[in-house]
Amino acid sequence: MSESSSHPARRVAILGAGPIGLEAALAFAEAGFDVEVYERGEVAASLQRWGHITLFSPWSLNTSPRGLAALQAQGGALPDPDAFPTGHAYRDTYLAALASSPRLAGRVHTHTRVLGVGRQGVLKGELIGSASRRERPFRLLLEDAQGTQRIAHADLVLDATGTYEQPNPLGDAGLRAPGEDAAARAGRVVYGNPDVLGAARERFVGQHVALIGDGYSAATSLRALLTLVEQDAATRVTWITRSSEAPYARIPQDVLPQRDLLAALGNAIAAGDHPHGERVTRRPGAAVEAIQLEEGGALTLLLRGEDGAVSEVGGVHRVLACTGFRPDPGLYRELQVHQCYASEGPMKLAAALLAAGGGGGDCLAQTSAGPETLKSPEPDLFILGAKSYGRRSDFLLKLGLQQIEELLTLVAP
Q1: pTM of the full predicted structure?
Q2: d(C-alpha 54, C-alpha 392), whole Å
Q3: 383 CB-side CA count, 13 A
Q4: What pLDDT is attached to residue 359?
Q5: What span, in angstroms and rounded, lies between the C-alpha atoms of 396 and 394?
Q6: Maximum Cα interatomic distance, the chain, rounded to a whole number of Å
Q7: Which of 212, 368, 398, 410 is deepest in the core (most CB within 10 A)?
């Protein structure tokens, strides 16, 4: 797309310099838009936190032809499309090349926090559902690392901030458990997937660890913790799951071998089919009622079973919370966004995903829901990537790449 001097390029503000944010930035810059990317930390900072983990999906599902061309143009070697990268390799080999692409020179603003987005001269409750809101530019309140604030403007806003920085709490009903905050402040609760066998080893080795969660993130941490159990006789693991059944559905002839290995491991541990005796136990069908921080720093977890009875798990030194993530709608609080009441994703996309089959089956079988589902009541605001799936855990990077291409068909003149 070319722009004449009388028709300046439309300004696009992209929130988040993760995989989808950077891919979108490169795509829109190549299409002739005036692109600015705002990232509150470093490029792909969230990937750095779980960079030790090998992705389920191969390079071919996590890259775009446009991104590979940018990598090659900078002298980088193209990865084996069938190989499975670690998060570190994906960030350092591929995403770093996107961020340093000449097309994005000076346009990726790290350590720049977006505090909020609104429409210039109009409030959230004004011009309800009106396309005329498009005539008012977006107004972004930004803050740099020194705390200095400024205003930026844009004609389009793409929110690709993801969900990783907003972990779900430990308590029942989606609430924080009483005592959870105090235990977290004391360093006794860790969220996500720390490098248990590397940088975070000393926090877990020789400890009684309560692992909470029954998704693939929990199985990933469980595998690492089992290695510590084998290496150190004092290490213990209590695995607490909401489900009382085998937690993982095996997919026949699964094309993602890492996923199938984790499913097999998780089900074996759940069934007690392991050589670690009482040092690795599972508490199925349990919800965390409260966490008590005892003298000396140990924790006691109060668990409520499916029958309503409350029991204790005491002497816990560390809680590892693999409870999933949720979106933060605060960035667009002053905009007219229709959110799903269940997933907190944008409503049109959430409805399309539900109609396509709910949450069952193989996530690889998913296809794009189409460009119309990306639209919001707020003109020219689009939520992309993992955040567009809200609280759902079946988002794939390949779907985010499809969203970018479809979005270009919507906004290109």
Answers
A1: 0.93
A2: 21
A3: 31
A4: 46
A5: 6
A6: 75
A7: 212
